[in-house]
Amino acid sequence: MNISSLKTKLLYFLLAGLIPATSLSQEIDPALEILIQKALEKNHGLNVNQLEGEQARIDQKQAKAVFLPEITLNGSYTRLNDDITFDEDTQNLLMSTQKLLIKEAAGLPFNADFPENIPLQPASNLQDKNILKSSVDLDWVLFSGFEATNALKAAKHKEASLNFVGEAEKDKIVLNLIETYDKLALVNASQEVLAASEDHLKDQERFVKKAKENGLATPISRKKIELAQQQLEAKQLEFRQNKRLLIEVLHQITGENREILRSLSPQLNAITFTGNSAEKRAEVLALEEAEKAAIYKSKMEKSNFIPKLALKGHYEFLEDDLSLLDPQWYVGVGIKWNVFDGGKSKLKSRKSQLEAQKYQEKIKEAEEMISLSIVKAEMSYEAALQNTRIAQKEIELAEATFEMLKKQHRNDLASISEVLDGLRDLESANFKLQESYFDQSKAGTSLMHAKGILNY
Questions:
Q1: pLDDT for the residue numbered 118
Q2: In what order do the strands lie in the sheet with 308-316?
Q3: N or C: less crowded end of the chain, CB within 10 Å?
Q4: How far is CA 77 from the centre of its chain?
Q5: How far apart are CA 211 and CA 237, in angstroms?
Q6: Which SS3 state, helix, strand or coil, does residue 414 take?
Q7: How far apart are CA 37 and CA 282, in angstroms?
């Protein structure tokens, strides 16, 4: 997935008019995009996944390297206890043969005496005792019996599987980050609700103070307002502590500076999700690629019985110390055929086949769980929408009731307790509305994730 922008883009999904679009009514928040990037960069699990992916790419290179020629330079010095020579009878035979050849060349009869003035060459050593060698060897696999080819394919599918595992892990990180970010927005919204309640209390405090000066209010009314103010301060303290805790959580997830996190002002807004499109989840894709990797691994192990063809070459740079039997160079082609290995390859192949079957079962299980999660997410989203509508109606009723009680109190038709109860009801309704926005956002994000269309 490509990192784009924050929450709107996290929930936004569109395929150029080919399928129903997912529409969201939420303004872009650039801060969330930055936090997502930092969270993905910081997460240790993702870093480990990337390292495992790099290992899979190295496995591919190793499989390809099987078909590259291996060139080895060799050098050695050996000293024997003595020269290796022919035995005495063979040396005498060689000397006699040399004399016959010389007499023949001189035109002498073979039974004539050998001239004393002609020197004879002693027989060469089979191997001098001082041996200095320098050579190069070439080993080149021409055909691996499809073992390297299947190993390469297995490594490619393993890498793809790890990539999809990483995508699934990213989804979890982003979902957790969005929820934490929305909780911070909920705290901000709740603090705004408390600020509105504080203004209402100050307004009532001024009215009661003036009424008391005119003998129209009792000290009890003032004490009730003071109690309400203390209760309000306790709520404000609770939300400040919640905000501090959320800042610490965001710092742990993203590694972002705390001062920057404190300066964030996320807002909760109602989100409208439409569209029935769905895509295959990364979890399923990861299992499918793992199954393919296991299948090719099984083929690789089974191909152990196929003959393998290789070329071998050798060249000696130094000829002086070669024995009479050593060639200066040679080239050859050989076949290696593993006819019977005690059934090891067959058992390994069968084990990999069973591994592939395990992945098939996991795929079926994952698809069933995803289908169920989509149904549950749709139900949660529908419930969140309904709760938002209910909360909006409760706000209307609470506002109207509070305004009526204020007017009645000013006309001495309602007590200060009734006014404070009305204010608490209005405050509670506002809290409930903000919580419904939070639940709607969470349910919408979860639905997008369940359908595999969570983009970021």
A1: 83
A2: 70-79, 130-143, 308-316, 329-336
A3: N
A4: 53
A5: 31
A6: coil
A7: 19
Task: Give this prediction's pTM.
Answer: 0.81
| pLDDT value at residue 30 | 85
Burial class for 235, CB neighbours closer than 10 Å (0-12, 13-18, 19+):
middle
Which residues contact residue 455 at a Cβ distance below 8 angstroms, ignoring those fewer than 6 apart? 1, 2, 4, 9, 10, 12, 13
Angstrom distance (rounded) from CA 434 to CA 185: 9
pLDDT of residue 8: 37
* Predicted pLDDT of residue 51: 97
**Tokens 């509305």 correspond to what residue?**
433
Alpha carbons 64 and 58: distance in angstroms, whole number: 10
| Single-letter amino acid code for the residue at 360 | Q
The separation between CA 227 and the C-alpha centre of its own chain, rounded to angstroms, equals 54
Instruction: Report the distance separating Cα 248 and Cα 283, nearest Å.
Output: 30
**pLDDT of amino acid 24:** 40
Beta strands in 277-431 (DSSP E): 308-316, 329-336
CATH, range 6-67+146-306+344-450: 1.20.1600.10
- Measured CA to CA, the distance from residue 184 to residue 248 in angstroms comes to 11
Crossing angle between the packed helical segments 282-302 and 344-410, to the nearest 10 degrees: 170
Q: What is the pLDDT of residue 86?
A: 83
Instruction: Point out which residues pair with 330 in neighbouring strands.
Output: 314
Closest by CA to 378, choosing from 451, 437, 434, 436, is 451
Q: What are the mean pLDDT values of the chain's consecutive 10-residue runs (456 residues total)? A: 38 30 48 94 96 97 96 93 84 83 81 81 82 94 95 97 97 96 96 94 87 74 91 96 97 96 88 76 98 97 93 94 87 93 93 97 98 96 95 96 92 90 96 96 92 88
- Smallest CA-to-CA distance from 249 within 174, 188, 171, 184 is with 184
Distance CA 327, CA 312 (A): 14
Per-residue pLDDT at 18: 29
Q: Closest Cα partner for 381 from 302, 297, 452, 439?
A: 439
Tell how many helices (H) and how many strands (E) occur in the chain: 10, 4
- Of 301, 302, 358, 296, nearest to 366 (Cα)? 358
Give the tokens for residue 398: 């609470």
Q: Crossing angle of helices 147-213/44-65, nearest 10°? A: 170
